[in-house]
Amino acid sequence: MRPLLTLTVMSFLAACAEFPDVDQAVSDSAKRAPFPDLIPVDDILIEDAARLDENSDDQLIARVDRLNRRANELRTRPIE
Question: What is the DSSP letter of 1?
Answer without folding.
Answer: -
